[in-house]
Specification:
- This protein is an alpha+beta fold.
- It has one domain: NE0471 N-terminal domain-like, CATH 3.30.2020.30.
- The protein is about 25% helix and about 20% strand.
- It has 4 helices and 6 strands.
- The strands form 2 sheets. The protein has a 3-stranded antiparallel β-sheet with strand order 1-2-3. Strands 4-5-6 form a 3-stranded antiparallel β-sheet.
- Strand 5 and strand 6 form a beta hairpin.
- The termini are far apart.
- The C terminus is likely disordered.
Amino acid sequence: MSGLKSDTPVPTGIVVHAVSRVLELQYANGESFRIPFELMRVYSPSAEVRGHGPGQETLQTGKREVTITALEAVGHYALQPTFSDGHDTGIYSWDQLYDLATRQDELWAEYFAKLKEAGVERDTPMAASAHDGAAHGHCH
């Protein structure tokens, strides 16, 4: 896992906005960012999403309505959210969170380009994996 860069700001305040589905990060310099849960989820640093090397990423879909059901600190360098779809293996270091917060437009554009390239819709349900728990019913 990537550690903290020496110049990465550490949030002084963290607020989970459940209704609007954003994680708010507040910094000592007065900056404040709201990262949508969906963006966090599709860019999860977990091996389940990232794979174990370039080209092994798993494109995440159907995450628009995902929420954070729990949020735990990992030492003094990261957060580990539990998402409503059961995903809980992503550990977000302060630098990864700051990167997500400050590059949202670029990351959304990259995500939408990957969806288009793969020929899938943003809201397409993901195929159930072995550790997803109960299958979810979907109407077509």
